[in-house]
Design a protein that fits this description.
Elements lengths: L8 H13 L4 H5 L8 E4 L16 E4 L1 H12 L25 H7 L1
Antiparallel strand pairs: 1-2
């Protein structure tokens, strides 16, 4: 953990609370796979205006693979604008990425 807020006691406490509340990777779980979460991700990145210490609902418990996948396809400055943040589908065949166009079309 390199930069603020990740090097603070407040973040360590918030991270621990999220992992207790949601100990499994939320995206693997949506795919029907149970994997222990070891990373806590901001739903809205701080660099894009997200709160550094949001409520637990503003955070997602992820495994390392899912976190790296999301960071590479969505959070970096070179992100692909149409790439899914999270790859895969739930048991019903729906994309697990709630930002996917499929979900927006379904709401209409």
């Amino acid at each position: 953990m390199a930069d603020w807020p990740y090097n603070t006691g407040a973040w360590r406490k918030l991270r621990a609370a999220k992992l207790v509340a949601a100990p499994l990777c939320e995206h693997c779980k949506a795919r029907g796979v149970l994997v222990q979460a070891n990373t806590v991700d901001h739903n809205t990145p701080i660099a894009k205006g997200g709160a550094p210490f949001p409520a637990l609902e503003g955070l997602t418990s992820l495994c390392e693979r899912c976190h790296n996948e999301k960071t590479a396809t969505h959070d970096r400055g070179t992100a692909k604008p149409f790439a899914r943040r999270f790859k895969g589908f739930d048991a019903s065949g729906n994309p697990i990425d709630l930002a996917d166009e499929w979900h927006r079309m379904r709401e209409k």
